[in-house]
Write a structure and sequence with these properties.
The chain is 9% helix and 35% strand. By secondary structure, the chain is mainly beta. It has one domain: Beta-galactosidase, Chain A, domain 5 (Distorted Sandwich). The strands form eight sheets. Strands 12-13-14-15-29-25-24-19-22 form a nine-stranded antiparallel sheet, with no helix packed on it. The chain has a six-stranded antiparallel sheet with strand order 18-27-26-23-20-21, with no helix packed on it.
C-alpha cells in the first residue's frame, strides 16, 4: 500500500514537473515550441527563439524561413506581439499563406507565368490567375530550410533549390540569416549562388499589426514611404512598365499619413485595381541601407517599425485579401486590412521588363540582399 502511494505521488510529481516544463517552454507570445516539431517532406521543422537585452523576442521557424512572432514592450511597458502568423506547423501546411515567409525564388508576380532568358522560355506554374506569384504554389515559403542557431540573437537558414524547382533554372544555394540586434532591429541578410544563369528576387513577407491586436485593422497606422514614384499596374497587378509620380495621388506617403486616409479612393484607378494598396514603390534611397526607406507607426501602442534596405523597391500590401476565413495565433480570425506588409524587393515582373533593374544571377556571382526592420517605441 505504501509503495502504491509512493508511486502515485511520484507520478503526480512527474506530471507536475512536466506541466511546469511545458509552461516554461512557452515563448513570450505564448508559442509552444513542441507544436513546431514535425517532419515535412522528410525534413525536421523547428522553432528558433531570439532574444536581446531589451526583453524583445523574435521567433522563427525553418518551415518557409518564417518570422512567427515579434514581441516587444509598448509605450506602457505591455508586451505586444506585432506580426500575424500561425502557432503550429499543421496550420502552416494546411493553409496557403505567406505569413512571415522568406519568399523565393521570385518575390511578387511574373506575368503570364513565364520569362525568357538567353533565348530560352521558362514556363512557370501559375498560382495567381495566369501569373506566377511568390515563386509558385510550392515556393520557398513551403520548403524546410536547414536551420542553425548561431547564438541567442542569430539564426542561419540554408536551402538548396534544385535546377527546375518550380521550373526555374539553376541549382541555387541559398542562405538567410536573421539577427536580432540590441537596438531592436531584425537584420535579415539573403545570399545565393547558382551554377546556371537564373533570376532571383527574395523578400520577407511579415504581416505587421503594431497594435498587437489583430482583431483591429491597421488603417489608423501612420505610414511613410521614402519614394517619389511607384510602378502602376494593370488589372492583373502586373506593372505597366512605366514609373509614375506619387505626388498629388493617394499613393503619396512622402509625408506620414494614416493608411486608411486614401485607401478607399476607388475613383483613383490604381486603388481600385489593387483593392487598396498592393503596389511597388520606387525608393529614393538608391540602395543605401543607411537611409530610411519606410516607417509604419501605431498611435495607440507607440510602436513603430522602420525599414532599411539595399533593394530598389518596396511592396506595400495592406492585407486587402484577408477575409476572416483563416484563424491565426490563439485562434484569432484574420480579417481584411488587419496588417500591413513592407516587402523590400526588386520590381515585380522584372524578368519580362528589361527597363527595370536586373534580377539575373550568373554563375560566379553572389546574390546579396538585406532588409532591416528596426522597432522603436514612442512614449
Amino acid at each position: 500500500m505504501k509503495n502504491t502511494i509512493f508511486l502515485a505521488g511520484l507520478m503526480a510529481f512527474a506530471l507536475c514537473s512536466c506541466n511546469s516544463q511545458t509552461k516554461t517552454a512557452l515563448t513570450q507570445s505564448g508559442l509552444d515550441s513542441q507544436k513546431f516539431e514535425a517532419t515535412v517532406d522528410g525534413r525536421q521543422t523547428h522553432l528558433y527563439t531570439l532574444t536581446n537585452k531589451n526583453n524583445m523576442e523574435v521567433c522563427i521557424t525553418n518551415f518557409g524561413g518564417r518570422i512567427v512572432s515579434v514581441v516587444l514592450p509598448d509605450k506602457d511597458g505591455v508586451s505586444r506581439d506585432v506580426v500575424l502568423a500561425f502557432d503550429n506547423i499543421d496550420d502552416y501546411q494546411n493553409n496557403a499563406s505567406d505569413f512571415g515567409a522568406s519568399i523565393g525564388r521570385y518575390a511578387n508576380r511574373i506575368a503570364g507565368a513565364k520569362f525568357e532568358l538567353d533565348g530560352t522560355t521558362y514556363e512557370l506554374p501559375a498560382n495567381d490567375g495566369d501569373n506566377c506569384l511568390h515563386g509558385g504554389p510550392k515556393g520557398w515559403q513551403y520548403k524546410v530550410f536547414e536551420g542553425k542557431q548561431l547564438s541567442e540573437q542569430q539564426v542561419q537558414l540554408s536551402l538548396l533549390s534544385p535546377d527546375g524547382d518550380m521550373n526555374f533554372p539553376g541549382n541555387l544555394q541559398v542562405q538567410v540569416t536573421f539577427t536580432l540586434t540590441d537596438d531592436n532591429s531584425i537584420d535579415i541578410k539573403y545570399s545565393a549562388t547558382t551554377d546556371k544563369k537564373t533570376v532571383i528576387n527574395m523578400t520577407n513577407h511579415s504581416y505587421f499589426n503594431l497594435s498587437g491586436d489583430p482583431t483591429k485593422d491597421v488603417t489608423d497606422h501612420l505610414l511613410y514611404v521614402n519614394a517619389d514614384n511607384f510602378t502602376p499596374v494593370n488589372a492583373k497587378l502586373i506593372p505597366l512598365g512605366n514609373i509614375d509620380s506619387v505626388i498629388g495621388t493617394p499613393m503619396d506617403f512622402t509625408s506620414p499619413k494614416p493608411i486608411g486616409q486614401d485607401i478607399n479612393q476607388t475613383d483613383f484607378e490604381q486603388i481600385k485595381l489593387g483593392n487598396g494598396f498592393d503596389h511597388n514603390w520606387v525608393l529614393n534611397t538608391n540602395g543605401d541601407i543607411k537611409q530610411l526607406a519606410a516607417k509604419a507607426s501605431c498611435p495607440t501602442t507607440g510602436i513603430s517599425v522602420e525599414v532599411y534596405t539595399n533593394e530598389p523597391g518596396i511592396q506595400v500590401y495592406t492585407g486587402n485579401f484577408l477575409n476572416g476565413r483563416v484563424n491565426g495565433k490563439h485562434g484569432i480570425a484574420y480579417n481584411r486590412r488587419t496588417a500591413v506588409c513592407l516587402e523590400t524587393q526588386h520590381y515585380p515582373d522584372s524578368p519580362n521588363q528589361p527597363q527595370f533593374p536586373s534580377v539575373v544571377l550568373e554563375p560566379g556571382q553572389t546574390y546579396q540582399s538585406e532588409c532591416i526592420y528596426k522597432f522603436t517605441v514612442e512614449k
